Amino acid sequence: MFHYNHLRMINYARSLADILIVGVSTDELVSSYKTPPIIPFNERLQIIEALKTPDIVVPQHTLDHTETVRKLNIDAFVVGDDWYGKYDYLKDLGVQVFYFPYGTGVSSSSLKKTIYDSYEKNLLQERKAKPESVKPQP
Fold first, then answer.
1. pTM of the entire predicted model
2. What is the end-to-end Cα distance of the chain in Å, rounded?
């Protein structure tokens, strides 16, 4: 789920780049390390393409970015600090790696939990507000 911290990270990356390439993880990739995304890949791709900030938006099929970095001649790589250390191998390819401070409280997982908790709370309130069903008299 696209949220404010994603936007902040993209804007930060823009400040570092002459050309900003943003990768959007495919559903298969996301599902390989956490629960499947709620918003389908094609829709998430279109959301990022609709932003003014990225110059190019590419699908991300793997967590190994070696081929993409070489193919697209990438010299700086930005990722959330929840992945801290994971992409240090790119430094060996001459890439500056920036771990964006993601902050606390806002993440796709926390948003899903908030939505679920809100739904459960509202459902419980609606059930309490409904009268008990009328039982037929014998």
1. 0.76
2. 54
